[in-house]
Amino acid sequence: MPEEIQTFTTEHLDKCAHLYVEVFNSEPWNEQWTFETARTRLFEIINTPGFVGFVFKQGELLGFVAGYGKQGQRSKGFYLEEICIQPHKQHQGIGTKLLNQLMDTLTAMKVTTIYLLTNKDGQAEAFYTKHGYQRSQDMIFMAKRF
């Protein structure tokens, strides 16, 4: 079956939400997403100003990437919110193809920096490191639970 990368639209929302639940409720994340909460999260992301996202299909939807751009004081940045690949299709180049499509699009938009959050010391960090991402020396992620 031929591969195709399409722009992520609301037409893809339900399938992407199902995939999101499948991926993030499994190892190594072991989260507790429902279809409804995953769909709401993705709906919010695709409705953020500056949204850019793509889906990867090969007969069926196998993965997606999504985030949004923001203007900074001197340049545009991009917040990579999600990349999600069917577990049995990981390590086959789909994530790389989605990142390449994203990079081509962001380059044309004159984006100069991509930001993301991921678990440290795991497969996701290794994937991003392989693609030239590195831990920030300038910024930290902080949280307050209440």
UniProtKB/TrEMBL annotation:
Protein name: Ribosomal protein S18 acetylase RimI and related acetyltransferases
GO cellular component terms, A-Z: ribosome
Presence of the UniProt keyword Transferase in the record: yes
Claim: Lyase is one of the keywords in the record: no
Membrane-spanning ranges: none
Residue ranges occupied by any N-acetyltransferase domain in the UniProt entry: 3-146
InterPro entries: Acyl_CoA_acyltransferase, GNAT_dom
A Pfam family reported for this protein in Swiss-Prot or TrEMBL: Acetyltransf_1
Assigned keywords, A-Z: Ribonucleoprotein, Ribosomal protein, Transferase
PANTHER family xrefs: N-ACETYLTRANSFERASE
Any one GO molecular function term: acyltransferase activity, transferring groups other than amino-acyl groups
Organism this protein belongs to: Nostoc flagelliforme CCNUN1
